[in-house]
Amino acid sequence: MSILVNEAQRIFHLQNEYISYVMMVLPNGQLGQLYFGRKIHHRDNFDYLLEGSLRSHSALVPGVDRLFSLEHVKQEYPSYGNGDFRQGAVEILQGNGSRISHLVYEGYEIQAGKPSLPGLPATYVEDPSEAETLSVFLRDPLTQVVVTMLYTIYRDRSVLTRSVKIANQGEASVQVERAMSLCLDLPDADYEWMQFSGSWSRERFPVLRKLEIGIQAIESLRGHSSHQQNPFIILKRPSADEFSGEVMGFSLVYSGNFLAMAQVDTYDVTRVLMGIHPERFSWKLETGESFQTPEVVIGFSENGLNGLSQTFHDLYRKRLARGVWRDQARPILINNWEATYFDFNEEKLLKIASKAKSCGVELFVLDDGWFGARRMDNAGLGDWVPSLDLLPEGIRGLSEKVEALGMKFGLWIEPEMVNPDSDLYRAHPDWALHVPGRDSSLSRNQLVLDFSRPEVVDYIHGMIAKVIRESKISYIKWDMNRSITDCFNESLPADRQGEVFHRYILGVYDLYERLIREFPHILFESCAGGGARFDAGMLYYAPQAWTSDDTDAMERLKIQYGTSYGYPIVSMGSHVSAVPNHQVNRITPLKTRAEVAYFGTYGYELDLNKLTEEEQEEVRCYTQFMKDHRELIQFGTFYRLQSPFEKNEAAWMVVSEDRKEALVGSYRQLAKVNIGFSRLYLQGLDPDQLYEVDGQDRYYGDELMNAGLITSDASSCKVGEDVKPAYDFASRIYRIKAVD
Ligand code: DGJ
């Protein structure tokens, strides 16, 4: 890895074994983009990549050659208004009303390692030799606004990270109206765009379309990253597939409002922009103040979508997630939500816990309803005091009793919210986000606490930390069950109201940081009405996230498959739930429910007492299977093999780092009769290694990958008395083990 600089030509080349990123200072002093992609040789001068052309009607730059126009040139941090008519990356409102900036190169600095971003989540290094960081300084000579462009290249990863700091060194205050984390101008538009979209209970379904002239964008203006869109996009060459071809991914390490956009101009240049959504955002900078944007991680792969996903999985697992749980296989838990909803007492909970214990479960999680007057979802949020009528000895007593059973204890919280019917709201109605003189909108009977106010965060911290300190808590599920409306902070002046959304999420990060520092042993799982905040920002604080409120195995196949494009398997909360399923009423086999949930953190979301003895025995086997294989599943290399969005059959697999072991999950949505033959072409095995499949047949790795694993189901070819008919929602796990 290296950052090579040609000082005379003012050219920067960030390079490692996989990628090259080349920039140069343009003739007008701005920073220009020359190349991003597969590693290329270094040469002293790359200025041939700066294409000029004399085009009619272009706006020219005073004093610069007529071939040069900001309208065509590829830039690193453009602002709209002085010749570039595309979407800008930065907009700074000045005292006289002008929004035009001219950011001129001033210098650079290179440092070993990677600096952290104050108050924000970001990828990191454990040793400075893992990465190098380039800071390029740009200054607007008129306003004295200084922009620091931060670029980190990792030594052993096909990624580059970027973020931007904007500092006001002028004498007058300015208003930052747009501060994207990333602008990347690519020299052609021959890409397909992939986004991950959905809604509550159907999060992150891949959507693919060809890039076209104009703007394609996804966004969230909900105050959280959202069920609807995810702050992760992919640009792939049309010929690229899961296993080969060039793809790049852009992941925003942030959990609030965002915009991700590709603008293709009529000269076939593609501009990718990503960052905090400029809508409803502005940030006032007084003299001497600065603003730091969140980070964007750009991943690149020549090995198709799986290659890209593996790059993100490894980075996020090892250098985004933190804490003692980062490298540990996750405990198998049981959560009482779908087992009881709000209808529980201590006796009922202990019955569920002790049956789970007898089935090998390691952690009991008490979900919503344990505090204040929270008997339904219309009261009590904000009052983080255990309800003694349900739990006579509070959370302390219950947690001790669960530990006495030989299990760990976990607790649900929703710290950002308040019900109007709560002691907290009655005491501090002004602490909920609201616009004076207007009625606030309710969602799930709740309002959003104003986490942009430090005193609110302090108060909630005090309440939650007290419960944790008094009890034996090993796990916290942090929920967030509504989008933000009425986003107004009464204690801020009018010209700072555009800061509230971002200050809110900084408040959330602050509370997380305080809790994880004070209670480093706790495993945090983030949640937002299922998967509405499944983003890279959250993974910095909580190494796992509840993937979706939809726990049906067939639905989960799709949700987990879609989520795997950007996020590691170990980060996906996945549980076996009851049938008929509570979301879709579907009855799927217990085995299939387990075999889908294996590919995640694995747990249960039902009352195991309600299963037959036989089913409980089955559950014991599944729990044991997960215990035996969780290291492989959660820390192995994951491959998507067959998409449930494309076919009736779906498949994925994980391979251990040493390629000695693999597990293949194969699923069929609906039973069909007399169907064609089928094979799965496995991935990632050692071609010369002999493997045993399910302890029986032996094949070489190259056979399993090229000739394929035969998965044809003989029973579906014939209907008759002697043949067991195929059934819906079937699954099968294949265990592949190297033979010495
Ligand atoms: C939404 C979560 O996604 C569920 O798992 C559950 O915790 C409920 N909230 C509780 O209100």
Biggest beta-sheet profile: 10 strands, antiparallel
Our Rg estimate from Cα atoms comes to 27 Å
Give the distance, in angstroms, between the N- and C-terminal Cα atoms.
37 Å
Query: What would the CATH topology of the largest domain be?
Result: Beta-galactosidase, Chain A, domain 5
Mean pLDDT, to the nearest integer, reads 97
Q: State the share of residues found in helices, binned by percent.
A: 10-25%
Please report the total strand number as a whole number. 39
CATH class of the largest domain reads Mainly Beta
Broad shape = globular
DSSP summary: helix tally: 12
Question: What does the model show?
Answer:
By secondary structure, the protein is an alpha+beta fold. It folds into three domains: 317 residues, Distorted Sandwich (Beta-galactosidase, Chain A, domain 5); 302 residues, TIM Barrel; 97 residues, Immunoglobulin-like. Helix content is 19%, strand content 30%. The chain is built from twelve helices and 39 strands. The strands form seven sheets. Strands 6, 7, 8, 9, 11, 12, 14, 15, 19 and 20 form a ten-stranded antiparallel beta sheet that branches. Strands 29-28-27-26-23-22-21-31-30 form a nine-stranded parallel beta sheet. α6 packs parallel to α7. The longest helix has 23 residues. It starts with a strand and ends with a strand. The model has no long low-confidence stretch (mean pLDDT 97). It binds (2R,3S,4R,5S)-2-(hydroxymethyl)piperidine-3,4,5-triol (DGJ).
